[in-house]
């Protein structure tokens, strides 16, 4: 009997140690002027806030929470009533927050996470924007039409600033994801259901998360939002075109990829969305760069090997000199297009391209499958999507 108990005790100890061995992150600090208030620690999941823990604050306002470290950036918040502090976590960091109630939403300090500090900056900017909009709406000296026009312009200026300084600058960051979902009341500031430019912002972050956090639920959610937005915008455009010009909406198809529409080396407009039904190697290239000849030879081998089975190469040149590009591509059998903006091309931003050359694989549904950094065996990955 003693041996049985001893073995059971050892087994329980092993299980206990294993359960305690998981990686954790920690959030601690002090929120003063909030004695006896309930402080809630919540995960901002895709389905809404989920309570993780709570504590009744003492006079010094100290608190300490922890949870399992996420595998991709995740979002949390500290909340007392309607006062909220937004946080992001992507590893086992320890985040320290100090604040004073009831103005903790704007008056807090955060250390241990640069992303949390950036999210604070974004939250304060959003609060200031909302205050300005409310001020315009409540100003009796400004007529309704003038107020709406002013608000629209201010929101567009805000969006442009956020895109340039946060979203497009570092689309892989949690703060860029956070920025996409800022709202004025119940209205999203970035509206992918109606704005083509806002869809691009969602698509840029989605593409970046594909690389840095492959398979993450939030990355997939961004793709779904961008794709649905593309469909909605096309439906609105098609209805407008139909009413004005009699265009049949059924002739315009939707796509799961950021459109690339550029002239090829024969002067014909080529679109990557026209390649639905084919596996595509989407290549961004500069023919004037070192190593270009060797890369083209490798692409020729792949093209000769798989083209008859359904592989197409869609190569985007960013060469500054058009004549040179045409000379270099004259004998190439695949689709060769050129962006005259060169290395200033918006495509580099939308596809989150940090280096050249870079390639992506696109499956037969016209959906980005993988990018070069995620591929160890190119032949094997091509065969999977053929």
UniProtKB/TrEMBL annotation:
Keywords tagged on the record: Signal
Range of residues in the leader sequence: 1-18
Domain Thioredoxin-like fold: 277-366
Keyword hit for Transmembrane: no
InterPro entries (UniProt xref): DUF4369, Thioredoxin-like_fold, Thioredoxin-like_sf
Keyword Zinc annotated: no
Ranges for domain DUF4369: 25-115
UniProt superkingdom: Bacteria
Protein name: Peroxiredoxin
Organism: Prevotella pectinovora
